[in-house]
TrEMBL record:
Species whose genome carries this gene: Nocardioides luteus
Name the record gives this protein: N-acetylglucosamine-6-sulfatase
Top-level taxon in the UniProt lineage: Bacteria
Family assignment from sequence similarity: Belongs to the sulfatase family.
Limits of the Sulfatase N-terminal domain: 59-444
SUPFAM superfamilies: Alkaline phosphatase-like (SSF53649)
Region (Disordered): 320-339
Keywords of the record: Glycoprotein, Hydrolase, Signal
Record Pfam families: Sulfatase
InterPro entries: Alkaline_phosphatase_core_sf, Sulfatase_CS, Sulfatase_N
Length: 573
């Protein structure tokens, strides 16, 4: 089924768009088009100009990105659950790196971390940054954001919420505090800066009438303020207000719009919080449990008291059978040292309390989803996902992310919109597939340097051919000042996870860890898990590595290392 706006595009895009099985498929750009795609000052390509002329019926898009959202929380959210029932729900949806900044850089560009060169949350070395905003900008990723392609195709673009780690206010030469740089690709720019991790007391950006970037201060209401006054300043609710303002301002435009809404929840807090508010995952005051009732508060569709540690698949699993395995040049295997050596500091009581607070924390996001759905028209796609998952005691890891297991890498991917056929999808999708999907839905060109693949055709054809493998990569980095993902309140373990690359299919997960934590040496060892078992409970590499499914995973893993975009795309099929 072709989306209702698709018929208008044929004449305008005949040279770049093929209508295959009733779905728009856009060919990759090459040569001069690549240069235009990387240059935000370049004028629109002829095809994009023709597209803009027929843009009145193209769909709007709203992309809602949650932060550290784990799948067990989805069933607590009334509107998100309704959205999943009414739209396309991808059961095999993953992130390329289960860490905020590398994941967001990959999402914005459609490239893998080894291509974006954004490998960690913090820059580590200011002269040669490997993470954070410094690395994102230094390695040319600003010019590769999908939003630039949407702008060239005639879309009005807006951003609200959390952007990239360390995109913050800077100190000028005279000591004056000045806004961070303006980010191209966005016509409206309401980034909430890092103070929003705490929920209250932070700054956000906006563009004035001249297009100049300005700062807005969001003061933390006093302790004596009412619940309504406090929650009006809560980061998720301010994000909602910015989003609704953007939709209201552009819903009647002739040109279509794209809006990204990046919530801070349910990420753990940093900095500002109210006296007596001890939780590391601060919900809005309206959702919090009374001090004398830990099972109270608002957990959405499920009473807080009914949430239990049994919901956290793999919680407390004995890790003695998870140690990695060496593979010698002669094909023989031998045990490798365990990397999961952290003290299990997360108590059952703390884990359960934090699980419930995370459920309370996402209810404000769910209300935002509800209001956004009511504000948009029928010709609008809404996409809901997360930048990564979160483990909270699974695998005897404490609290955090970064691991290659389902708790950390599997995220929701739910889409509603024009002509979307409701139901679950079995295709494998990754967050690097979002950029080409957005461009595809807009009828815009997808640059050849994009490593992801559009899954737009599966929106109208649930059994359309799609990915069968997902790849993961992660880079070890010793925690540095400014690292926001230690999650110490959960007994965080991010800085014990080694570097790895991994590949996952319906049959199994193969991970190659580098147990040498220097960035120069290597000490490779493997973990292999079968999915005819309940979770990644037992490393079967020694006994299974010569079986056909494992050999297939190994071939793909070897080819993935350092892959060029076209090879990366081919490996998922």
């Amino acid at each position: 089924m072709m989306p209702k706006w698709g018929a208008l595009l044929g004449a305008a895009l005949l040279s770049v768009v093929a209508l295959v099985a009733g779905v728009l498929v856009v060919g990759p750009t090459t040569g001069a088009d690549d240069a235009a795609a990387a240059d935000p000052s370049a004028g629109p390509a002829p095809e994009a100009a023709a597209l803009a002329a027929a843009a009145d019926e193209r769909p709007n898009m709203v992309f809602i990105l949650m932060d550290d959202f784990s799948l067990e929380l989805l069933r607590t959210m009334p509107e998100a659950t309704r959205m999943a029932a009414e739209g396309a729900s991808y059961q095999n949806s993953f992130v390329i790196d289960s860490l905020c900044c590398p994941s967001r850089a990959a999402l914005l560009t459609g490239q893998t971390p080894h291509q974006t060169k954004v490998l960690t949350n913090t820059e580590n070395d200011p002269k040669h940054p490997v993470g954070g905003w410094s690395a994102f900008r230094r390695h040319g990723n600003v010019e590769k954001q999908f939003s630039l392609g949407l702008q060239r195709a005639g879309y009005t673009t807006g951003f609200v919420g959390k952007f990239i780690n360390a995109y913050e206010v800077v100190t000028g030469q005279d000591g004056e505090r000045v806004p961070p740089p303006k980010v191209p690709g966005w016509d409206s720019w309401n980034a909430l800066l890092g103070g929003a991790y705490g929920g209250w007391g932070y700054q956000s950006t906006y563009l004035d009438e001249h297009g100049e970037l300005k700062l807005r201060h969001h003061e933390q209401p006093p302790t004596s303020a009412t619940t309504a006054e406090k929650d009006a300043a809560y980061a998720t609710n301010v994000t909602r207000d910015y989003a609704l303002d953007f939709i209201s301002a552009h819903k009647d435009d002739e040109d279509p719009y794209f809006l990204e809404i990046a919530a801070y929840g349910p990420h753990s807090r940093l900095g500002h919080h109210y006296p007596g508010l001890k939780t590391w995952f601060p919900p809005a005051f309206a959702d919090q449990a009374p001090a004398d009732d830990p099972t109270g508060g608002n957990c959405g569709r499920v009473p807080c008291g009914k949430l239990s540690l049994k919901d956290l698949v793999g919680y407390g699993d004995d890790r003695s059978d998870n140690t990695p395995t060496y593979l010698g040049p002669d094909g023989r295997t031998s045990p490798a040292p365990a990397w999961r050596t952290n003290k299990v500091s997360l108590s059952d009581e703390t884990a359960l309390s934090q699980y419930r607070d995370r459920a309370r924390m996402v209810q404000s996001i769910d209300r935002m989803i509800d209001e956004v759905r009511k504000a948009v028209d029928d010709n609008t796609y809404i996409v809901l996902t997360s930048d990564n998952g979160f483990h909270l005691g699974q695998h005897q890891l404490n609290g955090g992310k970064g691991a290659p297991y389902d708790s950390d890498t599997r995220v929701p991917m739910v889409v509603v919109g024009p002509d979307v056929v409701p139901g679950e999808r079995s295709q494998f999708v990754s967050n690097i597939d979002l950029a080409p999907t957005f461009l595809d839905l807009a009828g815009a060109e997808t640059p050849s340097w994009t490593a992801g693949t559009s899954f737009a055709q599966a929106l109208t054809r649930p059994k359309a051919e799609g990915g069968r493998y997902a790849f993961f990569e992660h880079t070890y980095a010793k925690a540095h000042p400014g690292e926001v993902d230690l999650d110490r309140g959960s007994g965080g373990t991010i800085d014990i996870i080694p570097s790895y690359i991994a590949v996952r299919s319906a049959k199994g997960l193969l991970v190659r860890f580098d147990l040498d934590n220097s960035w120069k040496g290597t000490d490779y060892a493997y973990e292999l898990y079968r999915y005819d078992r309940p979770w990644e409970d037992t490393n079967v590499f020694a006994e299974d590595h010569t079986k056909p499914y494992a050999e297939d995973l190994m071939r793909r893993l070897d080819d993935y290392e350092g892959c060029a975009p076209a090879v990366c795309r081919a490996l998922t099929r």
